[in-house]
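Sequence, please.
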């Protein structure tokens, strides 16, 4: 994917080119994995403690936004805690080759998977060569 401006250094620094964070409130930045496939990109995000009904994924002006509120699920009185509950929030600038109208999302076991297909014009295609007599 270096042709699209992504380098090995970017992935080693655990950042995605064009990623933005625009939430004014306190939030958690979920860990993501982005894989380029022949038909598009697959983004997987860890969202433990969230539920399918509360996850908001949308694309606007080329920006993919993931917003997932969470709530403590344990009952009883907190005796000791080392982390705070906060909503997950992350934004990414989508490459122009992605068709935002065809993005699909799945959520299971705390993992959000987004399928970001390439636009038909951006997909590779084989061109037949004919013999001219």
């Amino acid at each position: 994917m270096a042709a699209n401006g992504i380098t090995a250094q970017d992935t080693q620094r655990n950042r995605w080119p064009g990623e933005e964070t625009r939430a004014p409130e306190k939030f958690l930045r979920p860990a993501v994995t982005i894989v380029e496939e022949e038909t598009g990109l697959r983004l997987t995000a860890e969202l433990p403690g969230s539920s399918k009904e509360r996850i908001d994924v949308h694309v606007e002006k080329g920006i993919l936004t993931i917003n997932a509120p969470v709530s403590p699920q344990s009952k009883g009185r907190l005796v000791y805690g080392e982390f705070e509950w906060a909503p997950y929030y992350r934004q990414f600038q989508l490459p122009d080759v992605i068709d935002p109208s065809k993005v699909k999302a799945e959520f299971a076991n705390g993992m959000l998977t987004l399928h970001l297909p390439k636009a038909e014009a951006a997909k590779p295609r084989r061109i037949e060569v004919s013999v001219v007599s």
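Confidence is low (pLDDT under 50) at residues 1-15.
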